[in-house]
Every structure is written in C-alpha cells, then in structure tokens.
Amino acid sequence: MSGEEAAVAAPAAIAERGVEVAGLLVHLCERGEGERLVVLHHSTGPLWGPLHDELAGRFAVTAPDMPGYGKSTRPLSARHPSHLAVLLNQLLGLERADRVHLVGLGLGGWVAAEMAASSQERLASLTLVGAAGIRPREGFIHDPMAEGWIAYAQRGFADRARFAEVFGERPAQDVVDVWDYSREMTARVTWRPWMWSLQLPDLLRGVRTRTLVAWGERDEIVPVDCAHQYVEALPDARLAVVAGAGHALDLERPAELAGLIFDFAGVS
Amino acid sequence: VFLGYFTERPYQDREADWYRSSAPMLDLTLSNGVIDPRIQADLYHRYFDEKLYVEEMGFDGVMLNAHHATPFCMGGGPMNIEAGILARITERVKIVLLGNVLPIWDDPLWLVEELGMIDVLSRGRLVSGWVRGTGRESMAHNAQPPYNWERFQEAHDFIVKAWTTPGPFRWEGEHYQYRYVNPWVRPYQQPHPPIWVPGAISRATVQWAARHRYVYVMLDSQLHLTRQVFDIYAEEAARCGYEAGPQHLGYMFRVHVDDTEEKAYETGRRLIEGPGNLFLDGSRGQANVWAQTLPGMSPRQPRDILPTIQHLQAASARGILAAAAKADSGAPDEPEELSEEEYQRRRYEIWDDVLGRYAAIVGTPDSVLPRIRHVLETLRPGNVFFWHGDGDMTHEDAMRGIRYMGEHVLPAVREMGDELGLASAFEIDPQTNAPFAPAPAAD
C-alpha cells in the first residue's frame, strides 16, 4: 500500500440501529461526527444517498426510516404526516437530542415542518427541500397514482441522465420494492387532500426556528410557489432556489445542496 | 338454477373517432367531452327496453354493475337509480346489483336508505351485492386505497346492522361514525336482502364471503382457474363447519345465440369490440395498471391473489412479476401501426381464443347447449348470468339473442340445472343449506 493511499481514510461505515418509540421500532442509519443532523426522506422511502455522505463530512447524520417506511414498524393508526411528526419528536426526546439540525426532503419536509410546528425547542435549524405540506396557489402537487414508480422517480430529476447515474437505466428490483412499499405508506397518511394541510401554514407562523427553504427551480413534483408560501409563513426563513434543478435536489445536486446547508448552519 | 342477464350498458357512438380507432382504448384517458347526451338518452332507454324483454323472455334476474368514469359502463353513479326504475317497471325478475362499491361511499347510510327503498318498491326482489371496486372507482371518488378492505368490511357491518336493528342507534367505527341511525325504510326481505359478492383478485374476499355464507360470483375467467377459486370458497366453508354447494356459487360468461353459426360468430364477436370492459378477456382496451392497483388496494403477495387471469395485472403492477419492469415506462406502450387487415386478423385471433376458453359461447340454439353444459358441469354454479348486449352489440342483436335464449336456451338450461343438481340461492338458502319453502300458489 502506498503512503498516498494510506493517507486517505476509508469512510466510516453507516451504522444501523433500532429505537423503540411508542412501542414501534424506528430504524436509524447514522454516520459522521459533530452536531446532530437528522434527514427525513422523500415519500419514495429511505435511501442513504450522496447528500447524506456529504453531510456526514461535517455532521453526525441520523437518517431514520420514518415510521411505516423501510425497516420501521408501520403505525397502523397513523392517518396524517403530523402523526409521524409526533413519533419522530418522541424519538428526539428519547435520544435526548438537543440542537438538532432537521432536514426534510419532499414528504419528509412536510413531516419536518409538522415537527417544528409542534415542538420547535430541540431544533437548531430547519431545512425544507421541495417540501410538500402546503397547497400551491396555482397548479397541484403532482399525483403519481396513475404512473409507475420509475416514471415518478424520474420526474424528480430535471436532468434525466442524472437519474440513470443514480439508479441505473433500470433500477434494481429491491429499489423498486422500496418505492412500492413506501407508496402504500404515503397513501395511508396523505390522500385527501393530496400532500397538503390546511392548518400547516397557520401553525408555521409560530415557529421561530431558523429555516432554509431550498427548492429546485424546475421542481415538477411540488411547485416552487410552495417554497414562497413556506417563506411567507415562517418568521425566520430564507429561500434558495437552485437554477435548473428538479425536485430531488438531494440526488441531483447533492454537493450544492450540502453547501447551502453548511452555509446556513455556519459550518462551512 | 338461477338464470340472470347482464350487460355493462356501454356508451356506444359508432361515428366517433375514439370509437372507430383501432388503437387500444386507453384507460382513464378518454374525456367525457365526447359524450352526446342525446345518444346517451337513447342508450339508457334501450337498456331498459332490453331488460323488460329479458323479463318477458323468462330470465330470473337482471344484473347491474357500477364502473365509474369510463365508456364501458354507464352505471357508475346511476346504478341504484337504474335499480329503482327496474323495481317499478319490472314485475318478477330479481334485481341483482353486483354491486355497490362500498369503500368509495363516505356515507353508507345513503345505501341503507336507497337499497332499502329499492327492496320495498320491488316487493323483495333486490339482491344487494358488494364490491371493493377496481382502482378506477377509488380514483373517481377519491377513496383512500390502503383502507379499501377495512372500509368494505365496516360499511358492510354497518349496513347490515342498520337493516336489521331497530333504531335509533349510534355507530362509532374506525371509518364511519353516526350520531343517529334511524333510516325511515326497512327492507322488504327479512332480515335483509340477499348479499352476493363478486370477485376477481383477492383471496381474502372469497374467504370473507364464505365465512358469511354469501353467494360468491366469478366473472368470466378461465374455467379451471375459476374452479380453483370455488375450491378456496369450499375449503373456507368447511373450516366454518358447513358444506358449500351450488347455491353458494355464481358464474357469469358471455353467450350469444343467433340464426346461424356464422351470424352468431360475427355478432357475438361484437361483445369484445366497442368500449368493452378493459379488464376482461379479449377486450381491445388497455388498462392503466397503476391506477387499477392503487397502493394498498390489492394484495402484495402472490399467495393472497386468486389464480384467475386478472391476477396477472395486479401482480405485475405490484412488482411481483418481471412484467412490471416493462410496464413501468410511465405510459402504456405506444400502439403499433397496424394495417386494417392485420388489425382485423389479430382481433379474430383473440376472439377465437376467447371462444376456445369458453369465455364466450356463441352459436345456434342447439349448438350452444353442449358448451354451456360443459361450463355448468365444470364449475357447478347454482347462479348463472349470461353476459350479453355488450361492447359493440346493437339493440337488434341484443333483442334477437334474448329471444333465442328465452325461447330455446333457458328451458334447456333449466333442465340441465335440475339434472346436474344445481340449486340456486333462491331454492336452497345459502345461510342454512335448507330448502326454501315453496311459494304459496296464487289464488
């Protein structure tokens, strides 16, 4: 082994563990050191992706499988993303996690906003990325129910070639299985209305947490108008629109999104 | 044996581009802007006229169904209204609804009231079927699919209680809540109208029907696979301590009878043309597999899915079969450009295949009987529906077929039923397996 190769430390493995919350198992993936940063996944389900790797360079990243997704137990009585938010706030309590940087992607952004609305004291910052949860003033949050998982996932990318880089031309069956299983859980907690809450904008007016609202300029899933509404509702929010990017900023522009989060959190 | 008649009441417009196109009729894509209400008026009148003739020609029942937002069935919203009209204009036939899509009703008390009225108005001729619906029904009325099965069961329990328990009472269920249940109608049939359940995909539904001793009706599937489904019913019945018989089983298949073999073949072929049911054998339509198997609506595991032909669609949409990968291109495959000659050749090939599998039986009054007998011997249903007047069939085709069936086929099939011991659900009570008392002779 050459000296140069030896100097490059192998990245730490992703640690996995389970925590019992309200009698349900919540599965966590963790990596990195520093202040605690929690990432909530998209409606398509848990995925430790390039954004997580970037963030783990400067934070202790925790990526839970939200209740009902991935390896976490399905809470059969959950009917709304706010019910997942309650469980995840309980998780932070059990973990004695204070000064948490909370990052939510897509549906996970909605859950993160609900967490902040009901229990903001633990949060050092909030980052909402293409977050669902607010009704757009024009257009709709995209409904995937008449299209396949792959077509829906592709829609998250303004650059479809990047989709193929991340998932391959034909995503593996185990990835598709996660999307299928996740879609069912998503349909359990949001359906009518699809992906928005009438109450959320009013609740957010009481959230003092510093918030970054990050959005892909060409988001085909959640219209950019929702970003503006988040900024209007949250007393201390700033907006970052990434030119030319789609909904899945975390997969399409992971380094750029991580940079925005580092700057915002003051860890650049 | 009980002999019923069924048509989906398709919207036919032979001059329209969408109707004449040789491209597959894609599910959930045709705008209702193409509807001409004057054509629709004629068609509704036509289908009622045909049902009156069905009664006149000796059928025991007429069956209605409900699919929403599609040209292949005009009974989506109106099915119970149609049943109400039939309750008044017919005199003898059973009015079989297969059925109301329970999970899409947010207020099943409406069903208690509407169906109660239909039963009263018809003086006890309603058969009230329940279905879970295809995905299109949940899409059309925006019902949350993961709770489809729960809502089906709770709505059923609520409706049966409302029919059988003097009110007022309160209902605090998981999906339905009522402060004051006291509908001002009680079913004519006591304790309540017969409940039948059709199915195609879910093993749980068959077992549920068997546990309730409800008639289970299979719709146009391959015979040996249908037999397997009936065996699942029988096994569940045995677990519940009773023996399932023909009175518990129903089967529906396409039949057309005409002047000559050639005419029957050509006219019968219209059953699979036009805006025929997208999900069934030989249809020229193409279903949207994603919308049809919404998340949480159909089972994820092959062991929970019935071995019928329709299961392939559900399985592929669930990623169970490799076909899913091919299907997941975001849109149905682009239709091939076919010459008219090649298109017709393929349609005839499909029709021959449908006939070969007994999914349709066509011929002269004499020639259809051995094939009908084969179906009855194989499946032993006590409750049989002839599916007719559908797809691209004209009123004249339908009336001619009904006449031949009434004059020649029904009497022969009744004899067959007696010979094979196929007692209907109106001869032997599926709830008790005891024969019903014969109706008192008219004065």
* Tally of DSSP β-strands of chain B: 13
Share of helix of chain B, binned: 40-55%
The run of helices and strands of chain A is HEEEHEHEHEHHHHEHEHH
**Low-pLDDT segments of chain B:** 317-327
Description:
The complex is a heterodimer of chains A (268) and B (443). Chain A has 268 residues and is of the alpha/beta class. Chain A is built from 11 helices and 8 strands. Chain A has an 8-stranded mixed beta sheet, with helices on both faces. In chain A, β1 and β2 form a beta hairpin. Chain A is globular. Chain A starts with a helix and ends with a helix. The N terminus of chain A is likely disordered. By secondary structure, chain B is an alpha/beta fold. Chains A and B meet through α5 and α7 of A and α10 and α12 of B.
List its salient traits.
A: 268 residues, alpha/beta, 8-stranded mixed beta sheet, 11 helices, 8 strands, globular, B: 443 residues, 8-stranded parallel β-barrel, 14% strand
Give a nutshell description of this structure.
The complex is a heterodimer of chains A (268) and B (443). Chain A is an alpha/beta fold.
Write the layout of secondary structure elements.
The complex is a heterodimer of chains A (268) and B (443).
Chain A: H1 3-7, E1 15-21, E2 24-31, E3 36-40, H2 50-56, E4 60-64, H3 81-94, E5 100-105, H4 107-118, E6 123-129, H5 149-155, H6 160-167, H7 173-189, H8 200-204, E7 211-216, H9 224-233, E8 237-242, H10 249-252, H11 254-265
Chain B: E1 2-6, H1 17-20, E2 25-26, H2 37-56, E3 61-64, H3 79-89, E4 94-101, H4 109-121, E5 126-131, H5 135-141, H6 148-164, E6 169-172, E7 177-181, E8 195-199, H7 203-212, E9 215-219, H8 223-239, E10 249-257, H9 261-269, E11 285-286, H10 289-292, H11 311-317, H12 323-327, H13 340-356, E12 360-363, H14 365-379, E13 383-387, H15 395-420
Parallel strand pairs in B: 1-3, 1-13, 2-11, 3-4, 4-5, 5-8, 8-9, 9-10, 10-12, 10-13
Antiparallel strand pairs in B: 6-7
Helix pairs in contact in B: 2-15, 3-4, 4-6, 7-8, 14-15
